Amino acid sequence: MPTARHVSPDDIRKGFSKAMSDMYRDEVPLYGALMELVAETNARVLATDTGLARQLQRTGEIQRLDMERHGAIRLGTAFELATISRLFAVMGMQPVGYYDLTPAGVPVHSTAFRAVHESALQTSPFRVFTSLLRLELIENPELRAFAQAALAKRSIFTPRALALIEQCEADGGLEQADADQFIQQALETFRWHHTATVSAAQYQQLSNQHRLVADVVAFKGPHINHLTPRTLDIDQVQAAMPGKGITPKAVIEGPPRRQCPILLRQTSFKALDEAITFTDAKGSHSARFGEIEQRGVALTPKGRALYDQLLNAARDDLGAFPNEANASRYTELMAQHFEAFPDDHRQMREQGLAFFRYFVTDKGRGAQADPSCSLSELIATGHVDVEPLVYEDFLPVSAAGIFQSNLGDAAQTHYATNSNQAEFEKALGRWTIDELQLYGETQQRSLAECATALGLPALA
Ligand code: OOG
Ligand code: NI
Predict the structure, then answer these.
(1) Which ligand has an atom closest to residue 402 CA?
(2) Residue 99 in contact with ligand 1 by CB distance below 6 A
(3) How confident is the prediction for the chain on average, in pLDDT?
(4) Residue 224: nearest ligand to its CA?
(5) Are 238 and 248 in contact (CB under 8 A)?
(6) What is the pLDDT of residues 351-360, one digit of tens each?
(7) Does the beta carbon of 109 lie inside 6 Å of ligand 1?
(8) pTM of the prediction?
(9) How far is CA 229 from CA 113, 209, 300, 413, in A?
(10) 129 pocket-lining for ligand 1 (C-beta < 6 Å)
C-alpha cells in the first residue's frame, strides 16, 4: 500500500528526467548546444507571441516547457521490455500506443512510456520511445542464433535497480532515500558504453544485416540515443542550427508549418561517429543523435484520419522518400495538401478534428450559469475558455524518417512481416494504452470541472 512516506512516482520521474538530461549533456556536448538554442528561441517566441504565451499559461504548459523532453532506447528481448515496463512504472510511466516501424525497413516495433493523467504530465511530461528488436526478421539463422545468444548473456539492469523495482511493487512505493538510489541505479541502464561485447568482425556481420541490429546486439545495454527538447518554433531552430555547427536533416517530419500547430513536428541532426573498442580491435559506432520537436493540438480519430490522408497524398505526389534533393518540392506539396485542414481552433473544434481543454473564466466562476446554455454559448459569453490539448505522443511516419536519417538510406529493407501488436504486448507483459482514449478522458474531465464550477449538471 502506498503510504505518506512514499515519494510520488511523478517526482521520481521528474528527478530521473533531470538526471538523464545531465548525464546526456556530459556525454554529448552538442545536446547542450541544442538545448541552449531551444531555450533562446522559446524565450523569443514567448516575448513576441502574446497569444501563445497566454495559451500556454492557461494550460500550464509554460511551467513544464523547460523540463520537457523525450528520449529513445532500443531493446533486444521480451524480458528486457517487460522489465523496463516495471522500471518505468516506478516513475508513473505507462506504455502508450503501438508503433510498427517495419514499413520503413526498420526491424522494430515500439511504444512510448509516459505519464497518462494531465496533472501527472504537468509535474513531468518525460517520455521514452522504446523499441523492441524483432529478431525473427533476421533471415540468416546463424546470425540470428548469435544475436540471441549475445542478448541472453547480457543483463541491462543493475541488481540494486531490480531489487528496488521489486520493493516498490511489494510496498506500493519508495521512500525518499530509496527513490534517490533508484534514480541513480536506473540511470545505469541508459548509459553509453565505449566497449562493445563482440569482435569487430561480428559487429560488421550484425551491421551488414541492419545497422540497428548491431546497435542493439553489440553492446552491454540500451544506451539512450537522443533526448529531445520541445521548441515553440521548430523552423527558427532548424534555420539557426547550422550557425551553431549543427547540420539538421533535410526535412522537418510531420505536418507543415501552420498558425495552429497540430500533432508533432520533428527534426534531427545525424548520429555522431564515436570511438568504440571491440573485444579484439578499435573501431567506431554511430547511434546517438540530436532531435528537437514542436508540439501542437492532439487530433481526434477524424482529425487523425484527415492528417494521414493528406500526408499520404503529399508523399504519393512526391513519389519518393523526402530527402535533400526533393526537400523544397516536398515542403510545397505538404503546404498545398494541408490547405484542406482548417487552420483555426474554432473550426477544428466545430468539425470535431481536435481535442480541447475547457477552463472556467473569472467571469464564469462567480456566476450561476443558465442550465439551458450550450457549451458554445458559454464560450461566446466568456464563461468558459477553450485551449488546445497538447499532443503527448509520436507519429510512425515521422519516427521512420528519424530512424532512416540516422541509419542511412541503405537501410531501406522491405520486410514481408508487418505489424504485430499482439506479439509486442505478449513481450511487454501487458496491454498498451490507446492514446485517443486518454485525450478523450482529459477533455471530458475539463468539461466536468467547468460544469461543477458553473453549477450545471453536465456539459458536452
Ligand atoms: C527512435 C526514433 C523515433 C521519434 O521521436 O519519433 C523518434 C530511435 O531512433 O530509437 O525518436
Ligand atoms: Ni525522438
Answers:
(1) 1
(2) no
(3) 93
(4) 1
(5) yes
(6) 999 999 999 9
(7) no
(8) 0.96
(9) 16, 32, 25, 30
(10) yes
Instruction: Kindly give, in sequence order, each residue whose CB lies less than 8 Å from that of residue 425, ignoring residues fewer than 6 positions away.
Output: 98, 431, 432
* C-alpha cell, 335: 503546404
- Residues 303-347: tens digit of each pLDDT: 999 999 999 999 999 998 888 899 999 999 999 999 999 999 999
Cα separation, 110 vs 125, in Å, equals 19
Is 394 close to ligand 1, i.e. is its CB under 6 Å away? yes
Candidate from 68, 402, 404, 407 with most ligand 1 atoms within 8 A of CB, to mutate: 402
Residue type, 244: K
| Cβ proximity of 301 and 237 under 8 Å | no
How many Å apart are CA 114 and CA 92, to the nearest integer?
7
Model confidence over 216-256: pLDDT tens digits? 999 999 999 999 999 999 999 999 988 888 888 889 999 99
Homologous superfamily of 9-296+395-424: Uncharacterised protein PF07063, DUF1338 (3.10.180.80)
The number of the ligand 1 atom at minimal distance from the alpha carbon of 253 is 6
Ranges for all domains in the chain classified under CATH 3.10.180.80? 9-296+395-424
Q: Is the CB of 398 under 6 A from ligand 1?
A: yes
Q: Is 402 in the pocket of ligand 1 (CB under 6 A)?
A: yes
Give the mean model confidence (pLDDT) for residues 103-126: 95
Residue 69 Cα to ligand 1 midpoint, Å, equals 12
Shortest-distance atom of ligand 1 to CA 74: 10
